[in-house]
Amino acid sequence: MSTSNNTQSLPRRFGRLRRFFQEVPLLGWLLGALTAVLAEQFVGLDLAHLVELPRIPVLFGFENALKKPELIPGTVLYVLLVYLAPALLVARLLQLPSNRLAGFLAGRWPAVSIVLHLALLYAVLHIWSDINDYRMIVVKITLIAVMLTLSLNVINGYMGEFSCSHPGFMALGAYAGSVVTIVLFTNSSMYGKALLPPAIGPYLYPLALIVGGCAAAVGALAVAIPSFRTRGDYLAIISLAFTFIVKSLIENLEIVGGPRGMRGQPDWSNLPTVFVCTVVCVAVINNFVRSTYGLALNAVRDNEMAADAMTINTQRTKMIAFLFAAFWAGVAGVLFAHVLRYVNPGTFGLQQLAEVLAMMYFGGLNSVYGSIVGAVSINLLSEMLRPLEIWKWIFIPLLLILVMIFRPTGLIAFRDFDPVRLIQPKGRPKSNAQS
Amino acid sequence: MRKMVIVSAVLLTGILMVTGAFAQKAATLKIGINAEITGDIPKVGEATKFAAQMYVEDVNKAGGIEVGGKKYLLELAVEDNEAKAESAAKAATKLVTVDEVIAIVGPQASKQAVPAGEVSNNYKTPMITGWSTNPNTTKDRPYVFRACFLDDFQGPALSIFAKDEYKFTKAAVLYDVASDYPKGLAEFFKKDWEKKNGPGSVVAYESFTTKDTDFSSQLTKIINSGAEFLFTPQYYNEVPLIVQQAKQLGWKKPILGSDSWASDELVKLCGKDCLGSYFVSHYASAGAKGATKEFIDRYKAKFGNIPDDVAALTWDAIGLIGQGIKNAGKITGDIKKDREAVRNAIAGIKNFPGITGTITFPPNSGDPVKCANIVKINDKGEFEFYKTACP
Amino acid sequence: MTVFLQNLINALQWGSFYALIAIGYSMVYSILMLFNFAHGDIFMTGSYIGFGVATALIALSATGMLALPNWLILVLTVLFSMVLTSFLGMFIERVGYRPLRDAPRASAAITGLMIGIILETGNLILLGAQRVKFPALVEPVTYDLGGVFVTNQKIMIVVVSLSLALALHQFIRRTKWGMAMRAMAFDYAVVPLMGVPINKIAAMTFALGSGLAAAAGILFGVAYPVLDPYMGIVFGWKAFVAAILGGRGSILGATLAGFILGFIEIFVAMVFPSTLRDFIAYSIILLILVFRPYGLFGEPYSVRLRL
Fold it and tell me: Which residues in C lie closer than 8 A to residue B214 (C-beta atoms)?
């Protein structure tokens, strides 16, 4: 997928290259990516040694190349041979069959087609992160960031408020979910013996996720109810106060560990769980914002009074949006707590707020697509630039400022995310037959 | 499809064989540093990095660490955890799985050290934190150690000192509620003090939040509570503000502190207001002898400031790792086995002559047994050894 | 009673900082309708610039070429730093905000946050992680007024910040430039058509706001002499609260709201257990906004939000 984005932004002389690939459907790209990660799985290490890399480059070689310039040629060669060449080659070679398959499925069982695409995407992620556990934790945290960013977009993008309450929602979710799993399924020093046999725990983990989400949603009432009477900047400081209040409350609650935090969450946030949660979150939020509720949100954003006059129940709309967004932030919080297996109120402060705001506005307002791109790119970038150490925090802000100046609404704003269109075959059937 | 990839890979292999050759692996061991270089507490990260660099340079200048008759050079892999919990976990994972370090020093603050400890323990990689006093960091984690002493020792040590030295009965405490180190210490001190002097003998128990700079309201309460001394287990950058504001509000009684006061910056930032105060410390920089003095002098010559407690504790933490490697007996080259050997060697360390005191790890625990010094800030602003307190 | 009076004085000092920073925030906010999230870090930079200027002046007077008394050094420091920080503010406006004037407001908020991070990190790179001590330009003298302790620093801080706020208020009420600024706050779209140089006004707004932040930074350095690169973050966000609580377009409103925020924080810690300070203080602010949804002095929007 990244390659298709790249080709779009390249100058015109690459237009021919682009045309060469423009009829490859998403299915083809996924197959290409799958080949690439499989290639890495089987021959990656040998190839890395061949090009004189000490090991498989973890994040496309950035971690080596930025520190040891002599490794740059090897890294470039590796990325070319292992990722680009197989992906492009297979995607192009399988253009015809994948277009046919995509067309066949999209015409008859679009649901099956979507599941197939998701399964392929999961396979790519799984195999890629299987090489190294560092990749695994990066993928997990990135997926969680996608959920957070997306849920923030519902309030800040679609409804047009400037909400600063996301760290608060996340904290509520993380703590509520952790309490559920620790009390019910683990023998901990804080709450004594497990109430239920730990063996059934993983099956009831969704329950903990829902409890976390609901806790956040209940907390969101504190922001949603004042939002009936005020908005904009005043709502922004209400939500900011909410974040301060939640953090202070948790610091004072000895029963959840106070500032020492809570440790010992079971290790249930594995990749499949996080992936499924993210997919469900994207799907549900996408359906929500494309439903009449989503349109009502936009109407409230653009002109509340007019929306009211057009028989939109603005209070109900705002309430639903807040609770809905908070729910998903809470779920993300539970997942986050179970990835780190530790929560601490200090995590949910102003830094977290700045980060999630940056990811959302970088990606783009009012756009599911944008939130995904924003969260993924900021997270990956921040990992890949680790070798720059402190200069990383000059480089990333500069990049964001430039993006804001040249694309003030974010990278991909106001774009509809339509999964059914995404899985369609590309190009006309005729040209398929010719190639 | 897979076949094709393999075929093309084989072809490439042929081409590259001509030019490529396997790099000769030098006999080096990697030690990971997981430090708070950016974020809230950059000074901590800087001190960690400096102390570790100095240690590694020393070892390498001497030709490396000798294990089983063979010398190994040390190499550092430094990762910044941005003072964020998830970044610390990522950094630890990266150090373990990508850089393949034999052991990790840091993170220092508990918010980062607890999740990073989880990672290190899962991957069976020894990790020593210099500074984290949260019991969660090492609890039930055989691979995680710390170089500092715990709150449940330091708190009582101070309360005994205040009792013996001044015969006081009424105490006041001012601490940061949002930070687990001061909070833990304040709690243990309160518990011990009230056990000795009866309930209610801590007449003021006040708090504030990290990054606060104005403590006037809390100090006013303390001053009006009739306390005979103030105990404030805060960091050296907050202590000057607390002490100066207390003086300006009319407080003239003694102020006691914890090991987090131990930085030459304290006196630089605080000036004459802090003179005459006592605090518990791992080491005293004024009048230090032997290895401690040598460390302080060299650190100062190299980096331009007197090392604070983080630097000293990092030095000991990495020293413990060095000792562990030495005691491991043999480096097999199989990183998993080596890590386990180093871990066992560290756990078995007895009477390690650290610059912050003699360190012994009790069986099945990563929390060292060591003595504390009571240090006085003398009239010249130096940290002068006053008394030893042992558990 | 003495406790109350003592805390009143404490709150006056603490509120002065919030007020000074909130004014700068509020000006940018009401005239350009921007969240200037870099403001807290401009305050931090101002404080460091003040540190640099003061250190240089002290060194200069130590060489004996110019024997300056301490009070003169302080005044010169404040003036120099205000000017220098004003330039920084104008630069930030030119680079980070002017290109975004017609963009959604939130985009400018993000550039503000990012400029803030650059200022923090830049400081860290330039000066290292060592915290610096602000030179003691005002030797503290404590007066005991029947159990209530006041220092000369406290008096100076309150007086200086109140007079700066008043001076700014007069400037905005009485001068032609001030009138242009008020007009811009009143209607952003029409004012340029009336021949008001909008870019100059915007730059001036930033210059004034940053100058005030620098003054606050130096006063802060005098009262709390430990500076660190991340000290502006909390101030920035709290000034954001105060500026909006004070309502749009009102210098006095922002000043008052700054003091109110300081009072709430100090008095909550006085009355309740101080561990619960943030919890109670911000619950109070939340309640205020539930009952006065448009701030203490603000009015409901008549203009559509530019988003």
Answer: 10, 13-14, 224, 266
Task: Give the one of B38, B98, B111 whose C-beta lies nearest to A134's C-beta.
Answer: B98
CA dist C278 and A252 (Å) reads 10
Q: Chain C, 210-239: which have a CB under 8 Å from a chain B CB?
A: 220, 224-226, 228-231, 233-234
Instruction: Read off the CATH number of the domain in which C182 is found.
Output: 1.10.3470
| CA-to-CA separations, A319 to A224, C39, C290, in angstroms, rounded | 6, 32, 15
Alpha carbon distance A297, A307 (integer Å):
9
**pTM score, whole prediction:** 0.88
pLDDT bracket for residue A5 (50, 70, 90) = very low
Residues of B with CB below 8 A from A397's CB?
none
Q: Check: CATH 3.40.50.2300 for B151-281+374-389? A: yes
Residue A106's φ and ψ, nearest 5 degrees, are: -65, -35
The answer to whether A161 and C35 have CB atoms below 8 angstroms apart is no
Which pLDDT tens digits describe chain B residue by residue (391 residues)? 455 555 555 555 544 443 443 444 458 888 999 998 888 788 888 889 999 999 999 889 888 888 878 888 898 989 888 888 889 999 999 999 888 899 999 798 888 898 999 999 999 999 999 888 888 888 888 999 988 877 778 888 888 888 888 888 889 999 988 887 888 888 888 888 888 888 888 888 888 888 788 888 888 888 888 889 999 988 888 888 899 889 888 888 889 888 878 777 788 888 888 888 888 877 666 666 778 888 888 888 888 887 888 888 899 999 999 999 888 888 888 888 889 999 989 888 888 888 887 888 888 788 887 777 788 888 888 888 887 777 5
Q: Which chains, if any, share at least 3 CB pairs under 8 A with chain C? A: A, B
**Tens digits of residue pLDDT in C64-118:** 777 778 888 889 999 999 999 999 999 999 988 888 887 887 888 889 999 999 9
Q: Which of C8, C208, C28 is nearest to C101 (CA)?
A: C28
Q: What is the DSSP string of chain C?
A: -HHHHHHHHHHHHHHHHHHHHHHHHHHHHHHH----TTHHHHHHHHHHHHHHHHHHHHHHHHHTSS---HHHHHHHHHHHHHHHHHHHHHHHIIIIIGGGTTS-HHHHHHHHHHHHHHHHHHHHHHH-S--EEPP--S---EEEETTEEEEHHHHHHHHHHHHHHHHHHHHHHHSHHHHHHHHHHH-TTTGGGGT--HHHHHHHHHHHHHHHHHHHHHHHHHHS-EE-TTTHHHHHHHHHHHHHHH-TT-HHHHHHHHHHHHHHHHHHHHHS-GGGHHHHHHHHHHHHHHHSTTTTT-----SPP--
Q: Which residues pair with A232 in a beta bridge?
A: none
Contact C298 A245 (CB under 8 A): no
Q: What is the CATH number of domain B28-149+290-360?
A: 3.40.50.2300
Domain residue spans in chain A?
A: 2-130, 133-420
| C286: confidence class by pLDDT, cuts 50, 70, 90 | confident
Q: Which domain holds residue C228?
A: 2-291
CB contact under 8 A, B6 and A42: yes
Chain B: closest CA distance from residue A292 (Å): 37
| C3 in A contact zone (CB under 8 Å) | no
Contact between chains at B216 and C7 (C-beta distance less than 8 A): yes
Best residue of A344, A392, A394 to probe chain B, by most B CBs closer than 10 Å: A344
Say whether domain A133-420 belongs to CATH 1.10.3470. yes
Q: Establish whether domains B28-149+290-360 and B151-281+374-389 are of one fold.
A: yes
Residue in B with minimal Cα distance to A59: B98
What is the rounded distance in angstroms from the CA atom of residue B81 to the CA atom of residue B215? 30
